From TrEMBL:
Gene3D superfamilies: 2.60.200.20, von Willebrand factor, type A domain (3.40.50.410). This is FHA domain-containing protein. Residues 309-359 are annotated as: Disordered. Residues 88-263 form the VWFA domain. Residues 430-485 form the FHA domain. It comes from the Bacteria. The keyword Transmembrane applies. Residues 314-326 have a biased composition (Pro residues). Keywords: Membrane, Signal, Transmembrane, Transmembrane helix. Residues 327-340 have a biased composition (Low complexity).
Length: 508
């Protein structure tokens, strides 16, 4: 789909606006939630959707489809970096405990590797370095040169003083938000020791989200048997802000090259997709599929809350006939010369069923006189007209709600509880998890915040369930018929387990 000049310019401007709105919404390689606005382009409603930062590589194609419609079309896509947008990254190294000099050395070295890779991937990106001890200290501010970053991350020593990590992270966040970039990334390298328990506190996550900052955390294990909760705290910080989590482990002592590449792609990933909505009925749910360079594809959805008829229809209706004048007294078929035409500037006659027009100068006076006369002669009509209009509006609203509620059921999830509760599946893309943003929510601690997604294949009509939990090593995963599965085509009656939640998948 070739973008016209005005369309490309508008999408480029929208990218800057949407990047700020969606900076905290980075997604992983298996699911994403687009953030969309609706605008009128070429007299027709269009969606302009920001994908946020996405781990998965370079997006090659973005395809869209209105739910329930046939056919898939390609959207116009502008990548985050193609329009000159940039990210600011603040690398923060935890160096509070002097007994962990090895961890501090590894963390600072790998932070330098991550920054250099992101610098090469995006020449406009900007970087800074800070450290945590008993307080937060900026070593080099955002925008530092390559040489300054190298000096700040070389030979870093463990300090031996420990502060409140949550408060210090918020101090670092304040420095990062001073950067003038469309995307802000806080890169935290630590071992998640007990003094770092504040990482999981709601106020830290809230501060990051409010500032629209994505957290990328790198966990360095001092020992192979490092306690799980310490590492999990770092993972949750990234997960709750939509970022990335890397577990370096204790064997190699450094990040793998693939992880470094993934971070560089993540910092500059995503972009803006622009596509036309249905002209006749633009309101509804639209599915977007991102296709990556490596062949993988992910699907997201958004609801366009646009009234029907937005934009200019292809065949405009003929102009409405001019309003007829209220009938006056019979004076014959001919109007005397110099007399006003019937209804021109005249008052409506009592008993007339026609409402006066409001476009002429005396329209409001006409309306007042008409109501006064009708109230004296036919009060029921005066009361009945507004009441009837309200009844009609209520009927239309009731029909709209009823139509919405009659969405066809595409499948059922039959829970393995005492009542065999059935949960309907009414969309072709359904997110399942513990978080309130999911389409189907299970409030069970064994279910991940974003655990799985159900998508229906347009050709076969079969549903596919995909595991979207972010850290497979610590994930309860998705079991289909008792076997762990990252992606499975579901047959009627298949048993699915998400942690402790178990259900049968049934086609209607």
């Amino acid at each position: 789909m070739t973008a016209a000049g005005p369309l490309r310019a508008l999408a480029a401007l929208a990218l800057g606006f949407l990047a700020l709105a969606g900076a905290a919404g980075a997604q992983d390689a298996t699911s994403f939630q687009p953030r969309c606005i609706v605008a009128t382009l070429d007299n027709a409603p269009h969606a302009i959707c920001e994908t946020g930062a996405i781990a998965g590589g370079r997006v090659m194609h973005v395809r869209y489809q209105k739910e329930g419609a046939t056919g898939v079309a390609e959207a116009n896509f502008l990548s985050f970096t193609s329009v000159g947008k940039a990210s600011s990254v603040l690398a923060v190294i935890d160096r509070g405990d002097r007994r962990r000099q090895r961890v501090v050395s590894l963390a600072s070295g790998d932070a330098a590797r991550l920054i250099e890779a992101a610098r090469v991937a995006g020449p406009n990106n900007r970087f800074g370095v800070g450290q945590l001890a008993d307080r937060y200290e900026t070593l080099v501010p955002i925008g530092a040169s390559r040489e300054e970053v190298a000096r700040a991350t070389t030979g870093m020593r463990a300090d031996g003083t420990i502060g409140d990590s949550g408060r210090l992270l918020i101090d670092a966040l304040r420095q990062l938000t001073l950067a003038q970039s469309e995307r802000l990334v806080l890169l935290l390298a630590s071992d998640g020791k007990p003094e770092d328990r504040a990482y999981g506190r709601d106020d830290v996550v809230k501060a990051l989200r409010d500032a629209k900052v994505v957290a990328v955390t790198v966990a360095f294990r001092e020992r192979p048997d490092a306690p799980g909760p310490e590492i999990a705290a770092l993972r949750r910080l990234a997960e709750d802000t939509g970022g990335l989590f890397f577990d370096v482990g204790s064997q190699s002592g450094r990040l793998e090259d693939a992880a470094v590449t993934r971070f560089a792609q993540f910092v500059g990933s995503g972009g803006t997709a622009t596509f036309p909505l249905n002209r006749v009925d633009p309101r509804g749910r639209y599915l977007l599929t991102l296709e990556f360079e490596n062949g993988r594809a992910v699907t997201g959805a958004f609801f366009a809350d646009v009234p029907a008829g937005s934009g200019t229809p292809a065949n405009p209706p003929p102009p409405a006939p001019a309003p007829r004048a209220a009938p006056g007294p019979a004076t014959g078929t001919n109007t005397p010369a110099g007399s006003p035409s019937p209804g021109a500037g005249t008052r409506p006659q009592p008993g007339s069923t026609e409402l006066p027009g409001l476009m002429d100068r005396s329209g409001l006076d006409n309306l007042a006189d008409w109501f006064s006369a009708e109230w004296r002669q036919r009060p029921t009509l005066v009361i009945g007209l507004p009441a009837g209009a309200l009844l009609i509006a209520a009927g239309v609203a009731w029909l709209a709600v009823r139509r919405k509620r009659r969405k066809p059921i595409l499948a059922w999830l039959e829970l393995a509880d005492q009542n065999r509760t059935r949960v309907p599946v009414k969309a072709t893309a359904v997110r399942i998890g513990r978080h309130s943003e999911n389409d189907i929510r299970f409030e069970n601690r064994s279910v991940h915040r974003y655990h799985a997604i159900l998508t229906r294949d347009l050709a076969s009509g079969r549903f596919v369930i995909s595991d979207v939990s972010k850290d497979l090593e610590h994930s309860n995963g998705v079991l289909v018929n008792g076997e762990m599965s990252l992606k499975s085509v579901l047959a009627d009656g298949d048993t699915v387990e998400l942690g402790e939640v178990k259900f049968r998948f049934l086609y209607p």
